[in-house]
Amino acid sequence: MVSEKPDVVIVGAGAAGLMLAARLAEGGQSVTVLEAGPERKLSDLTSSQIWARKLKWSEPAVSESGDHKIGHAFNAGSGTGGSAIHHYGVWLRMHEGDFSLKRDHGLGLDWPLNYADLAPHYDRVQTEVGLSGDADQERWRPKGAPYPMPPLPLFAQSRVLAQGFEKTGRHTSPLPLAINSQPYQGRRSCQYDGWCDAGCPIGALGNPLVVWLPRALAAGVRLEHGARVSRVIRSANNAQHMESVEYLRDGERKTLRADRIIIAAFAVQSVRILQSSATEQHVAPGNHSDKLGRYLMTHPAATVFGLFDEETYPHQGVSAGQLLNHDDYDKKNASGGFGSSQWMIGHAIKPHDLLGYGTGRPDISGAELEPWLKRAARHLGNMTLVCEDIAAHENRITLSDRLDSDGIPYAHTHHDLDPAAAARWTQRMSEGADIMRAAGASEVWSGPRIGMHILGGAVMGNDPAQSVTDAFGRVHDTDNLYIAGTALFPSSGAVNPTFTLTALASRQADHLLGKS
Amino acid sequence: MASTLITASYLIMGERLTLTPAEAAELKFTPEVLTHAELGAIEAVAEHLVPGAAEAGIAPYLDAQLRAGKHSLLIGKYLGVDISTQTGFYRSLASNLQQALQTGSSTSAVVSALWSDTQPDWEGPPASYMLFVLRADALDVTYGTPEGFENLGIPYMAHIMPEQPW
Asked: Rounded to whole angstroms, how far apart are CA atoms B159 and B166?
C-alpha cells in the first residue's frame, strides 16, 4: 500500500528524529515519523528500576562480539523518545580538540566541521531544551552562552566527594544538566528523587516527550508507532535518489514515498536499515567505499564506589550526578595512554539493577548482605569515569545471517577497545580510587568497564572515499537520503553525546530548510 | 496481552489470580515454564545469596517473567541473556544447580564452587556468570520494590508508584 507522500519521512522518534520533525514541520514541511517501538507517554514512566527495562531496546536482539562490547540492550531504547527517554540529561559540549583528532594526533578521524560550526546550535538548543549549570565554574568549557538556569543544588554525597578532588589538586563544577533547577517554559523543576533512569514523568528532565514531541505534533507531524523500517528503496530512474521506505506494521508490509528520507534510528539500527537496502544492482546507500557500519564506538566507562563514615544519603539527587571534573580532558596525549576523560560525580543510586550498589558487590551475600546494604544506603559515594574511544576501521556493524520472524536481518556489532584508550581508562580508574580515598572513603571498589553510549557506523566526512555522509548528514551517493544522530560521529570525545547530536540535528534542520 | 497482565497472573490450584510474587509463593503457585524441581533448586541458591528472596517470590517472579516472552523485565537482557534465550538460560542454570546440590555438598560449598567456576560437570555459560545473574534477580525481587527500600531505610519517593504485581 502506498500512503500519501510527505515532504520528509523520518525513521526514529528519538532525540534527533523528533527534534528534526519539530523544526522541519515548523518550517513548513510535511513530516511523517516512523517509530519501531510503542507509543510512550509520561504516565508510562513508572518509578521502578525493574519497570524501567520496558523502555530499553526490546525489538529483535543485536548480537555483540569483541573485547569491549557496546551494551546495546542497555544503551538503546525503543518507542517514543528512543533512548533519550531514559537518558540522564548530562548535556556537555564536545571540546574543540575533539573535532580534529587525526589532524592533531594522527589517530581516528576528523570531523568535517569544527566547534565554531556547532557553537551557535549548542547555544540555541540549550535554550530550547533548558539546561541548568554554571558556565563560569566550568573552567574547561568551550566558548558559549551561559546556561539559562542556575545549577541544581548539591546534596551530601557530592559535598563529601568534592573534598577528594580538592585534596588532590583537582577542580569540580556543577554538572550541566537538561534538568530544570527551576520551572522552565511551563515545565516543573526537579524533585531530586533519583528516578531519571526510569524516565522523568514530571517533565523536569528535558526528554523528547516534553521538549520536541509537543512542538512536532502542534506543527502537524504525523507519527506512526510499531512501524519497523526494513529498507530504503532507490528510484528505478535515478540511482542517486531514494524513492521510499519500506516498513512493517501490524504484520503488513507498507511503503511510504517522500521527497527526503532521514534515518534517525540510533547508530545500530540506522546502519542496519541502510545495509539492508543493498540490491543486486547497487551496493547499500553510503557503502560505495565499504565505510558503512565502520568506526563503531562506545565510551569505556566505569564507576568507582566508596563507603564513608559521613552520611551521604546516595538516594538523593539525580541519576546523572551532581558535579563534573574535566581537568584532564584536553590532555589527550598525556603519558599513560591516549584520550580525553571526565568524571561525573555523585550519582543518585539504587540498591539493585545493573548500576546498583548491591549488584556490584557479588562478594557480599548471605547474612552479611542486608546489614551491608543498609550501611551503603546511608554512607555510599560513587562517581563515573567516561573515557574517549578511538574510531577504528575494524569496529563495525554488520548484518547477521539470522533473520527475525518478519524476515528482517538482525544486526551484529563487533567492538574491540584500542590499547591506548584502554590504558588511559586503567590510569584514570586508579586515580579515581585515590580521589575516593582522599575524600575519606574507608573502603573503595570499582565496577567493571562497560560500554556507555553508541556512536559511529555512518560517519560524516569531507572525503566520500573515507566516510558515509557529508557535513550535513547527506549520504554521499544520494541526493535526498540523510542520517541523523550519533551514527554520524567521527570521534567520540569523552562527553555524553545527546547535546552534540541535538546540535548537529539543529544544523541539519537549518540546512534542509535552506537557512545555511 | 499487556506485559503487566502476563506477569501479574499466577495459577493457584487451577485458578488464574492477579498476585504479587510474594503472594504467589505463599499460595503455592503452579509453575508454567519451569518445573517445581527446577525452581526449587534455583530458589535454594537464590535464598542463600540473598536471604529473603524465597519469601519475596523469586520462583514465581522468574517463572512469570519467562512466560512474558518479549515483555520480560528480567535483568538478563542487560547482561547478555537475550530475551529469546532466557528460558533456556534458566533451565540450564536449574539443571546444573540440581546436579550440584545432589552431590551431598552443602549449599554454601556449592555456591563457593560456583563463584570460582570449579564446580565439576557444569555445562553452559560459566557458573560465576549465571550466579551473578541469579543474584541480581534475587536483589530485584527482594529489594527492588517499595517494601524492599523500606527494609533498607530508603525513602522510595516515587513519581509514579509501580504496580505491584509486576
From this structure: 17
Cβ distance A34 to A10 under 8 Å? yes
pTM summary value: 0.96
- Which of B50, B75, B157 has its CB closest to that of A365? B50
Q: How far A67 CA sits from the closest chain B CA (Å)? A: 14
Query: A239 vs A183, A233, A278, A282, CA distance in Å?
Result: 51, 10, 12, 8
Using an 8 Å CB-CB cutoff, list chain A residues near B143.
Answer: 351-352, 358, 373
Q: Is residue A3 situated within a structural domain?
A: no
Residue with cell 487451577: B14
Contacts of A378 in chain B (CB under 8 A): 153
Using left for φ > 0, alpha for ψ between -120 and 50, and beta otherwise, residue B58 falls in alpha
Q: How many domains does chain A have?
A: 1
Minimal Cα distance from A69: which residue of B? B80
pLDDT < 50 regions, chain A: 1-2
Distances from the Cα of B34 to the Cαs of A257, B69, B82, B94, in angstroms? 48, 14, 18, 9
Least confident of A452-461, B36-45, B65-74: B65-74
The beta strand positions in A439-499, using DSSP E, are 443-446, 450-455, 481-483
Contacts of A362 in chain B (CB under 8 A): 115, 131-132, 135
Q: Which of A173, A175, A158, A171 is nearest to A439 (CA)?
A: A158
pLDDT for res B38 = 98
| Tens digits of residue pLDDT in A10-52 | 999 999 999 999 999 999 999 999 999 999 999 999 999 999 9
pLDDT of residue B5: 44
Residue A36 lies in a domain: yes
- Residue A51 within a domain: yes
Q: For residue A92, what is the domain's CATH number?
A: 3.50.50.60
Could you give the angle at which helices A419-438 and A156-167 cross, rounded to 10 degrees? 110
ipTM of this model? 0.95
The parent domain of residue A96 ranges over 8-512
| Tens digits of residue pLDDT in A196-237 | 999 999 999 999 999 999 999 999 999 999 999 999 999 999
Q: Residue A81: inside a domain, yes or no? A: yes
For A415, the enclosing helix (H) or strand (E) is none
**Nearest CB partner across the interface for A50, out of B79, B155, B166:** B166
